[in-house]
Design a protein that fits this description.
The chain is α+β, with helices and mostly antiparallel strands. Helix content is 21%, strand content 36%.
Length: 280
Amino acid sequence: MAAIALFVHADRPEALKLAADLIDRLDGDGHQVRLALESAEVVGRTDLAHLDEHIGEKLDLAVSLGGDGSMLRAVTSVADDGVPVLGVNYGSLGYLTGIQPEAAPQAIEQFLAGDYIIEERIRLRCRLGDGTEVSALNEAIVEKVDSGRTVHLAVHIDGEYFTSYAADGLIAATPTGSTAYSLSAGGPILAPTMPAVILTPVAPHTLFDRSLVLLPSSELIIEVLGHRPAAVAVDGRSLGELGEGGSLAVTVSDQPARLVALGHRGFHQALKSSFGLSDR
């Protein structure tokens, strides 16, 4: 029997209903079901609640019921334990969540039968000067705090000073995150399983406004210059502000995200759908 955790988008009633149905089905088949704490509260099954720091222990599968944001939450909670994550799409774009809701029960059965492949996606290890350390599947962002004013940021690559930017911010993104904020800032689209790190400036006041695609072995340090503070966010989670001399160090994590693929729509098909690209 398997241990399966569910991460449910609290504001989607249809996802809550599917979660309740899956719990009954899995429990009836003798599997152990775990719920993220917030998910347990909204589903009304606090008896199945697990804290994030323990939910991935001896877990066979995590299932995200929501959009890409819910998927990021699930990956953050279980990736360090090497747990594969299956995404059920209740969002709009669905770059990470490839399974449609009506196919979720069959997808879980297919996984339990061993009929699946695992896509490994690199994650970023993000470390602040005060020792705070978190991981990101999409991106780490250092950006301005004051509206209408740029922030001055220096970039160091592998211990060497590269250049400085007066900009709205800098994005360090994974290939998975290349279709998120980095794309809207003019960054390239990379195949999500590529081993690389993308550095994309946001509205830079400089002649050099291109993204850089770096080796996965690179160490990237973004340092705040001058008196204007910068805000730091990782996969949409705020980590606070950096003052003058404060820095964010970014490397590739030793533990990748492990996403379940079942032979459904691939990345290129997701791109075509999202951008309305025709077959001719």
